[in-house]
Every structure is written in structure tokens, then in C-alpha cells.
Design a protein that fits this description.
By secondary structure, the protein is mostly helical. The chain is built from 7 helices and 2 strands. Helix 5 packs parallel to helix 7. The two termini are 22 Å apart. Pfam families: ATP-synt_A. It is a multi-pass membrane protein.
Length: 247
């Protein structure tokens, strides 16, 4: 059975997908390195929003929490509960990873609906949510796969690989391919939903600019939050699965 060639082919397909483009894009060429400026700008804006919000909210923590401190404590508790539910009692070390994934995707998704990106003019293309680009979703999915391999190997050592021949060695190729296709699934699910949502809003704005877009945009905010939750939940579930060794 051609397990290794199939796995290599799957990884090559994931790498090729990172070159998929929808519309025009603006790049900087630095030596032999091509930088996707649109994603770089919007990603750093999202990071600045997250860091700025945290600094402002908790720079002076109070025994009786303020509204901002209360909100971030609630978010932290939510991420901890999510991690514990999916990973189990050893969830503690994974809270920062799961929380980072959730918050970055959540704010990125909402930025596409709430921030007036299109006001900023570029020589080519236009700005949009970071998760509206397949490069970003692949970049988020690959560390998730690395994390879940690391979790399994850290806990079980080389015995982790026994899971590939359970419940029967006949399933070895399928079990290997399942692990290599998980980042592909995570990438496409997030990218496809965010891109589709933004395209629907654009089409409706052009057809009925004063009536339909507002409720659709509110629906988009809801679905954007759900997509962030799904990604974080699946990432935590994959890590928990690798540590427990069951499917």
C-alpha cells in the first residue's frame, strides 16, 4: 500500500492550495521572498487590537473587577472550559494555544464586517479580513497539526504511533491519511465560510443597498463567531484525541 507517497501527495496538495488566489493581490518583493501585503497589514491590525484591548483592560487589575476586566476574565474562563471539555484534565498547558487561535480568528472574522478596510487604497487589490485568504487559514491549520502530534508524542512517546494500526492494521493507510487531511479540512472550512459570507454581503449591497445588507451583516457576525468557535473546538478535540489515543 502506497501510504508514504499518498501522505506526501496530500502535504504537497496543501502547500499548493496556499497559492490559491481570489481576485487581485498586492505583494512586496524582498529579495527572493514575496510578501502578501494585504494579509500582513490586516493581521497586524488584528494583533494590535487584541494586544491593545488586553493592555487597556488589565493594566490596573482590581479586586472588584471593572467591566473590561470582567469581560476578559469571562473570555478566559470560556476558553479554559472549552479546552478542559475537549482535552481533559491535562488541558492547562494548552489554554494559551487554543485561546490564541480562537481570539485571532474571532477578531479577524469580525474585522471583515466591522472595519472599513476598503477605504484604504492599495496599488493592486483591496484589504479584507485576514481569514479571507487561504494563506492565513493554512498558516493556522498547520500549527494545529504540529500541536496535536506533539501532544501525543509527549505523552506516549513512540507508542503514540500504535494508534495507526488500531483497531486493525488494515486501517493503517486510512488512519495516516486522516491525520494529514485534518489541516486541509480546517483550512478550507474557515476560508470557505468567511469568503462566502463577504461575497454574499457584497452582492446584496450592489443589488439592494438600503434594505437587505444590514441583517445579513448581523448574521455574518454571528456565523463568523461560530467559525472561530468551531476551529478552536476542533483544534482542542484533535489534541485531546491524540493524548487519549482514540477516535
Amino acid at each position: 500500500m502506497n501510504v508514504i507517497p499518498s501522505s506526501v501527495k496530500t502535504l504537497k496538495g496543501l502547500y499548493d492550495i496556499s497559492g490559491v488566489e481570489v481576485g487581485q493581490h498586492f505583494y512586496w518583493q524582498i529579495g527572493g521572498l514575496q510578501i502578501h501585503v494585504q494579509v500582513l497589514i490586516t493581521s497586524w491590525v488584528v494583533i494590535a487590537i487584541l494586544l491593545g484591548s488586553v493592555i487597556i483592560a488589565i493594566r490596573n487589575p482590581q479586586e472588584i473587577p471593572t467591566n473590561g476586566q470582567n469581560f476578559f476574565e469571562y473570555v478566559l474562563e470560556f476558553i479554559r472550559d472549552l479546552s478542559k471539555t475537549q482535552i481533559g484534565e491535562e488541558y492547562g498547558t494548552w489554554v494559551p494555544f487554543i485561546g490564541t487561535m480562537f481570539l485571532f480568528i474571532f477578531v479577524s472574522n469580525w474585522s471583515g464586517a466591522l472595519l472599513p478596510w476598503k477605504i484604504i487604497k492599495l496599488p493592486h487589490g483591496e484589504l479584507a479580513a485576514p481569514t479571507n485568504d487561504i494563506n492565513t487559514t493554512v498558516a493556522l491549520a498547520l500549527p494545529t497539526s504540529v500541536a496535536y502530534f506533539y501532544a501525543g508524542l509527549s505523552k506516549k512517546g513512540l507508542g503514540y504511533f500504535r494508534k495507526y494500526i488500531q483497531p486493525t492494521p488494515i486501517l493503517l493507510p486510512i488512519n495516516i491519511l486522516e491525520d494529514f487531511t485534518k489541516p486541509l479540512s480546517l483550512s478550507f472550512r474557515l476560508f470557505g465560510n468567511i469568503l462566502a459570507d463577504e461575497l454574499v454581503v457584497v452582492v446584496l449591497v450592489s443589488l439592494v443597498p438600503s434594505v437587505v445588507p444590514i441583517p445579513v451583516m448581523f448574521l455574518g457576525l454571528f456565523t463568523s463567531g461560530i467559525q472561530a468557535l468551531i476551529f478552536a473546538t476542533l483544534a482542542a478535540a484533535y489534541i485531546g484525541e491524540s493524548m487519549e489515543g482514540h477516535h
